[in-house]
Amino acid sequence: MSEVFLEAKHISKSFVGVKALDDVDLTIGRGEIHCLIGENGSGKSTLIKIIGGVHKADSGTITVEGKQLSGSQAIESIRSGVQIIYQDLSLFPNLTVAENISVNQMLESNQQTVQWKEVRETARKALEEIGEAHISLDERVENLSMAKKQIIAISRALTQNAKLIIMDEATSAITKEEVDHLFSIIQNLKKKGIATLFVSHKLSEVFEISENITIIRDGKKVGVYPTSELDHDRLVYIMTGRKLEAEPYVYDTKMKQKSPLLEVKSFSKELQYQDISFSLQPGEILGITGLIGSGRTEIVQSIFGLNPADSGTMYMNGEEVKISNPRDAIRHGIALLPEDRLNQGLFDAQSIGDNIVITILKNFLKKIGLLDTTKQKRSANDWIERLKIKTPDGNLPVNSLSGGNQQRVVLAKWLAINPKVFILDGPTIGIDIGSKHTIHDIIRDLAREGMGIIMISDEIQEVLDNCNRILLMSKGRIIKEIDDARTTTSEELYEIVTGAASAGVEA
Amino acid sequence: MNIKQLMKHNETYILLIILIFSAALTMINPVFLTLENMFDLLRSSSGTAILAIGVFLVLLSGGIDVSCTAIAIAGQYISVNVLIATGIDSIALAFLISILIGVSLGAINAVFISIFKLPTLITTLGTSSLYHGLLLEVVGTKAVNAGDLPESIKAFGKIEILTLTRADGSSYGLSIFFLILVILLLLTWFILKFTMVGRGVYAIGGNAEAAKRTGYNSHKIQFFIYCYAGFLAGVMGVMHISMIRYGNPNYLVGTELSVIAAVVLGGARISGGTGTLTGTMLGVILITILEKNLILMGLSSYWQQFFIGVVIILGVSITYAQNKFQARRNLSIGGA
Amino acid sequence: MKSAAMLRLVTFKNPKNKTLFIIMMAIVLVMALAMPSKFLTSINIQSMASQFPEFGFLALAMMLAMITGGIDLSVVAVANLTGVAAAKILSASVENGTPAGTAMVMAVLAILVVSALAGLANGSLIAFLGVPPILATLGTQGLFMGLSIVLTKGHSISGFPEEFMVIGNGNFLGIPISFILFLAAAYLVSVLLNKTQQGFNMFMIGSSPVVSKFSGVNNTKVLIKTYMLTALLAGLASVIMISRANSMRPGYGTAYLLQAILVVVLGGVDPDGGFGNIPGVIMAIFILQITQSGLNILAFSPFFKKFMWGFALLLVMVLNYLLQNRSSRRKIRLMSNDTKHTDTGETV
Q1: In this predicted complex, what is the ipTM?
Q2: How far apart are CA A305 and CA A413, in angstroms?
């Protein structure tokens, strides 16, 4: 590595309930293309926010070009040449391309008035610098594609004399061609001495672009390696930290019924997914994996009635069912644990008990139409006990719990309806490793008792360890079905998923 | 700009409605389309238009302001009473006092909204009651008759920037109020377009989080917005009394509904970030035509509030229903 | 019923209510000490108890909308519209010599129908079309108030049957009937909020409409019902309003809108939705009424009161903001301490 540009040492950070980072180091050389990889919830985002001065580390130091940052001011990081492009890009949808690119420059120069000529000039130069001069300066940003928006965000970073651009999950919402284009831009920046920290969990891209790779797992740094010294298998091994103790889930074929518990036939929805068919038997844990944007979340939300499909039919135990809203789904015994626990799964500030009983409130209605609150409380407490939710009192708000316990509340809320089919979308996102195992155990027990389970996960290893059958999705289609999870390895699966994404399978 | 692009703009639709409406009114009564009637319309709508500029700014930043009329009446009533008490008969002083009061009261709004982060509706409901109550309690409730009104104020309302002569030799003209409105529109346009504070208004309305990340000072911007809205209300207050030549501290308060209606009809979204001054002015014109011509349409003035309600409901229903169905088409509810 | 409510007051499940109770007692004490001969007289207490119910109903209405995270700016306008409808029927009955009983039943029916329709209009705009509650009810406020003006041409309607006036002016065992009606309504609202599915779902929608949708709640239905109940309470306010005054003048009670928002916020209802309880709101109403009569006795002008309510609303909101900031900081500190234990306990 040539000259060091940025050095982060011994960074630790805890948030309410979770230790997000534990003694992590990161070093980036001038003009280096460095990758930071790790699974969801491993602490990648927290680390870059600390580097950007958005969060303050509990301990540790950050040095840029030999000067130590105070570590609590975004402006200080920006002045030292660090620019972060967040996943949400921080653009103003209602303003033009020119203004979005030049806004930092305008603010930085402390001018009181706007010289539109200069604004356009700055924007034009920035776009030219990365070879994108063809983008109209007067277009409103809300009318641009995701890839173009990204280019706007990069151009904006360039106006600030950036020496290091941090891109958080930059490729999650763009096509392969656009990714290639982005990479040529990054290579170009390197020639100008601008370093890039590329945060991702798509391995093929990581290999294609990076010079060095820092891997973190569960908030700890696992290691830093020159990309040339690694291959796919080894990286996956290091990244997922395959847990040898995990027994794969074995499906008891005796549970198989003549007509499957759930069958989906040629479900399609414009712009989301095409021609999806699969079936689920009682006792099965069916894994669905694929990158973000592969359509996996959309399809399960359709099954649950949140996002009705344009066409296709659905059967339960051989009979056709129509599900047009979540109430229909619940009536048929389908439950969905959503991907975004905080925004979709839990009433953050409401009590643990109320969060659990919301799905079964009808059960507590007395003859006169009033709720039997004693029974309601008792039921909530039963579930708290059954799922071993750690709380002194069910009346406490759910946000007083740790991530793992919060997820158990969501599990309890859905188990309460006694579902036949339980869809779990990212059941262990943002949950520490100990709780992860417990949640896996609960899921397996449920399957053994005859529930049909669909489990979506980003983590190939999690799917492999816990599912007996796996569907791989890419760009809205099922590209492969693996009938026996024991016959495959995580390396192979990674290859298929990322390979398909790179090959640009037509959607 | 071709027709397809034109049809994308909210303004086009309001303009069409105004034209259809005007055509209908002209058919009922040809007097509607005379220059004299137009001048009269411009004179009487200038006040609402000026308040609407302020409310537009607030909406652009993602807030709502129901205190503008209370501020305007406070500026008006206090400045006129000061003029009468001191015997200084100066329209300039009246404007100065009224503007000072407007800006100060706007700053108080900003303290609650920016520093204490209170919801804008509840804040301005509260301050509106506070300002108006204080005005009536401290300054009084006595109406100011034309006879007691300082000459300069009465004279100001009669100034015409363009005078035309009727066939019978009498004259009519375009009031100075229109000129004031045009100047304030240009000033506001300039601020919004060419100053960093003005761009900040769009920025915090479009994406408040990003505005903070990029380094906009949202306190400064919010103080500017509410002080500027107060300034406009101050100007409007004096204009209003010189137009009707009668001062009553209970006037204006209660008409904020039509001001907000005008701005919302003009295409500004309550969620902030979108809307134009042109749209706002068209909204004002539509509301004014509606208010002033009910009688021409054969309806008594009792229908006024009813119609404003109907127009607001239609306006917001169309806007938000469009939104809702578009959102449903475009994307899965995942992110919602 | 009353003892149950009192019991709940005394046990203070909600710490905010304790503060409210202390404030309320302090104000009573100050008033009693400052003007012992005027304040603590049975006449004054009786008059206080008969003054606030019409406004109390509006506050209950506002509370329901706010619990779901909305607001209803049209409550006073709805009360006006239903008041006009009822007043027309009642005054016509006096002129035509219709029996008072029949007229009263018809008037109450009219109030129920009109308020249900008004609530349905609000609820549909908000739940079906997705119009923000502020704008939807701002529009319907104009519509309903405008309609009451159109129907009366701006004049007041007066002259109702004697029997009807008892509702607003009569006493039962020395207790004003309107006060009894208010307590009954407050009790029913409390049952609605704490003991029914509708009430439960209202809190949840106020907390997060997305999560409630993901949990199988029919948001549209719950919201429409909420705004219908809100309008219904506003309609009931008009019964007391017109019977107390023996007349209905369109535009009556516009000051109540601000006061309703004030007491609801003061009573601990979260303007962002999801939280609120009846004892808190009742105490806030009492506080407002006691202060109001105190100011009356001390001969403060209505303008000063207008100022006071604006001031009090802002003060309460600012205090809430400051207290919340402090307590959330403390909560995070506490939480990070005890969750650390559970974490280490869990980690394998």
Answers
A1: 0.86
A2: 18
